[in-house]
Amino acid sequence: MFSLQLAFDHTSDKFIDETSEVVSALAAIHPSLTTQLVYEVILAANEKTQHVGTSFPTNALLAMWQFHISGFLREKLCSFGWTKVDGKGGVAYVISPCKEHAIRVFAGNKYVGLRDGSVSNKSIKGSTLKDDIYPLLNSDKGTTIWTLLHYRFGELMRLELSQPKSFAKGKIDDWSTRIKLPDIKFNIPTTPRMKDKVEVGVVPVKRKKKA
Q1: Between β-strands 156-168 and 144-153, what pairing exists: parallel, antiparallel or unpaired?
Q2: Exposed/middle/buried for 129, CB within 10 Å: 0-12, 13-18, 19+?
Q3: Are 22 and 181 in contact (CB under 8 A)?
Q4: What is each CA distance from 192 to 45, 51, 185, in whole angstroms?
């Protein structure tokens, strides 16, 4: 059993949103980690969740997003040599081949993907990042935890891959590096749209003459 020690950078806070810098920052974690990969993960998760009926509670839909994003992210990255690890309480992580990076998916608040504002996780489970035990993890250099934060409103989802720095009452309240990922617009209607009604005219019927 190996305890994960967070590799936090206390000296500088960074918000990365310029396209080329985002690509470089992701590649520095691992070459397999790309904006295209994340895009495909989100579209796959959306396909699984878009048919949820309005009778379901809001938190059920959020839980489904969390479940499917985590699952598809692990599926994609494991094909590139990453490892699935379940943390304390069954929380889903995926560990890079070098074991120096770990990613966990979190639903975030309305400030996800924005430079300004107090971005944080939506639930109160952020502090579990400090206490997870990793039976498969053993890195002499320490392991950096990254959180894939997602926030959806309407047809738009904002995303960022960010490194937690400190915690307060179960929430992440400070960050070291934040990598803004491209917004995703779904353009998928939540209910079927009926076609415009077509007016049918009266067609006169001529009676045949008797022979």
Answers
A1: antiparallel
A2: buried
A3: yes
A4: 20, 10, 18
Q: What angle do CA 53, 68, 39 make, to 5 degrees?
A: 105
As a whole number of angstroms, the distance between CA 199 and CA 88 comes to 62
Provide the residue-wise pLDDT of the chain in tens; the chain has 211 residues: 334 444 444 334 799 999 999 999 999 999 999 999 999 999 999 988 876 666 666 677 778 888 999 999 999 999 999 999 887 666 788 999 988 899 999 899 999 999 988 998 887 765 566 555 443 444 556 788 899 999 998 889 999 999 988 777 778 888 999 999 999 998 754 443 434 443 434 444 455 555 5
How many angstroms separate the CA atoms of 186 and 170, rounded? 31
Q: Say how many CA atoms lie within 13 Å of 157 toward its Cβ.
A: 22
Q: Are 41 and 69 in contact (CB under 8 A)?
A: yes
CA-to-CA distance for 85 and 116, rounded, in angstroms?
Answer: 33
* C-alpha closest to that of 117 among 83, 151, 80: 151
